[in-house]
Amino acid sequence: MFTGIVEELGEVVAIEDLGDAARLTVRGPQVTSDVSNGDSIAVNGVCLTVTSAAAEQFTADVMRETLTRSSLGALAPGARVNLERSVRLADRLGGHLVQGHVDGVGELISRTTAEHWDVVRIALPPGLARYVVEKGSIAVDGISLTVSAIAGDWFEVSLIPETLKRTTLGYKQPGEPVNLEVDVIAKYVEKLTAAPGQVTR
């Protein structure tokens, strides 16, 4: 479980193609300061299990399902990625409950720069719009954000200077993919309120 508060911008060091999977090595001095094998680290919002760690780097295996359902398959050495260690029960919940389970890949449509913030518009994949509400929470590349506007197939978030400085959304441009995780509470509510026999995703 994560909070969507990015701890640091890491860098992809290497990607090894394993055929039906990939082995990802990422540099992140802060998140590796106390890491052990088996720990969870979110990489651009995707929960990965550390298989080895040394010299401020960690390695994780990424199965085909994860590569297909997220943007991790598009990463290349040198790419910057958002990193967050899993939350401890004693930690403050600064963002919202984030599982690290990507619901879909969106596309950055546009960004509008103001004096003190940027407004970023992101296309919603089919089927996700019903879980997104204005002033609700959504994780974008693992960043806990508040939805500032929404239409049928897109939503907007407003980014303060701290978010622009500390995350990948500070430099991503229109056309680039982003991992999206909707609020899990919305999915549970939908299932609990569905009519008997009605299929939910």
Characterise the protein shown here.
With about 200 residues, this protein is mainly beta. It has 2 domains: about 10-85, Elongation Factor Tu (Ef-tu), domain 3 (Beta Barrel); about 105-190, Beta Barrel (Elongation Factor Tu (Ef-tu), domain 3), CATH 2.40.30.20. It contains 3 helices and 12 strands. The chain has helices at about 65-70, 160-165, 185-195, and strands at about 10-15, 20-25, 40-45, 45-55, 55-65, 80-85, 105-115, 120-125, 135-140, 145-150, 155-160, 175-180. The strands form 2 sheets. The chain has a 6-stranded antiparallel β-barrel with strand order 1-2-5-4-3-6. A 6-stranded antiparallel β-barrel has the order 7-8-11-10-9-12. The chain is globular and about 50 Å long.
Helix-strand blueprint:
Layout: E1 8-17, E2 21-27, E3 40-43, E4 46-54, E5 57-63, H1 64-69, E6 80-85, E7 104-113, E8 118-123, E9 137-140, E10 143-150, E11 154-159, H2 161-166, E12 177-182, H3 184-193
Antiparallel strand pairs: 1-2, 1-6, 2-5, 3-4, 3-6, 4-5, 7-8, 7-12, 8-11, 9-10, 9-12, 10-11
